[in-house]
Amino acid sequence: MLRLIREHPRTPLYWFLISKGFRTYRFLPVFFARFWPDPRSPAPPGGAELLRTVAAWKFGACYDAADGLVKDAAGDRLAAPLAAVPEAKRRDPHTRFFLERNPQYALGHELACLAPITTANFTAPARRVIAHTAPEWME
Questions:
Q1: Residue 57 buriedness (CB in 10 A; 0-12 / 13-18 / 19+)
Q2: Cis peptide before 116 (omega within 30 of 0)
Q3: Domain ranges of the chain
Q4: 93-114 as b/e: b if 16+ CB within 10 A
Q5: What is the pTM of this model?
Q6: Which strands make up the sheet holding 14-19, listed edge to edge?
Q7: Do residues 4 and 117 touch, judged by C-beta distance below 8 A?
Q8: pLDDT for 36-86, tens place per residue?
Q9: Which of 24, 15, 43, 35 has its CA nearest to residue 95?
């Protein structure tokens, strides 16, 4: 990822993520300042359309643009222990948002998400991970 940023500094890069559970969705606010869908703000101009286009291209008829979910793409579901959402986690605004947007996640539905990959969009935790895994990029 960092190599792409360095080699193509003027090319917009994005991380496309489909999230079957709240734990996966939580990677977005932990590592990116901007991403969508995000409970804190709407997608920027063109962002929602880009997300729909990528999801439809990747998943075809399994992608429901009306709710932003990929349904029945792989036919698998979360294991019961992972599908359970502890009460303490339900208080987190990102977890609540995920559950509102994907209420049938336990059936295997996945929320389509997109995050711009730029050094400016990395959060402090992302920068720490990068610093510990790829020191040659911290020139």
A1: exposed
A2: no
A3: 2-137
A4: ebbebbbebbeebbebbbbbbb
A5: 0.88
A6: 14-19, 110-116, 69-70, 63-64
A7: yes
A8: 999 999 999 899 999 999 999 999 999 999 999 999 767 788 888 888 888
A9: 24
